[in-house]
Amino acid sequence: MITLALSKGRIFDETLPLLKAAGIEVLDDPEKTRKLILATNQPEVRVVLVRATDVPTYVQYGGADLGITGLDTLIEHGNEGLYLPLDLQIAKCRVSVAVREGFDYAAAVRQGARLRVATKYVAIAREFFAAKGVHVDLIKLYGSMELAPLTGLADAIVDLVSTGNTLKANHLVEVERIMDISSRLVVNQAALKLKREPIRRIIDAFGQALGQP
Ligand code: PRP
After folding, report:
1. Residues enclosing ligand 1, CB less than 6 A?
2. Which pTM was predicted?
3. Ligand 1: nearest atom to the Cα of 165
4. Using CA atoms, how far apart are residues 93 and 95, in angstroms rounded to an integer?
5. How far away, in angstroms, is 211 Cα from ligand 1 center?
6. For a substitution probing ligand 1, which of 166, 171, 182 has the most ligand atoms within 8 Å of its CB?
7. Is residue 212's pLDDT more than 80?
8. Which domain holds residue 116?
9. Ligand 1 atom 5: residue of nearest CA
10. The domain spanning residue 126 has which CATH number?
11. pLDDT tens for each residue of 138-187
């Protein structure tokens, strides 16, 4: 059995065409079922639905053989025990620094006072500000980061930006772009050895669908 870990929503939807290229069709719609294990048209392939941030954990410890996860999640989790053969070029967005409209970010950075930064992406933020030589107090949040500058919890946030609509709706502005994000295929290294044939077939089909050799 080959188990593929996916998260519901954008990653799931944008993975379907790649699965199709590998001859795999998921038999249930995750938005219409409460099932967490979804069968496919191939009896030897199943999909497990997990939280986006849990995908690397499932694959690392062998709860799934393969998974698809954003580079942001992967950096926060770390790559241990994972083989990363493909950038799937899906669920594209960026990680950026944003502040309240009217907040003088450049001056705050220049003055060298400690900046309070709220984020779910602590590893990415820590490395980014360290490389700039900016002292920050990082405040870990699990969602709704846009609220932090509006309530005085933080001066800035580090968050995913796609269309920019969420920032705009909350009167925030993007002041620095930290990195571009897309989803990666992650593979359990032990599974790659033990189930080489079927896993290789999936990696190769995805690669071909993406126009990569
Ligand atoms: C992300 C991010 C922003 C939003 C940005 O949240 O945290 O809130 O998308 O998208 P936009 O620039 O197109 O408005 P997501 O929907 O992934 O959910 P999350 O809050 O659980 O991370």
Report:
1. 143, 159-166
2. 0.93
3. 14
4. 7
5. 29
6. 166
7. no
8. 93-181
9. 161
10. 3.40.190.10
11. 999 999 999 999 999 999 999 999 999 999 999 999 999 999 999 999 99
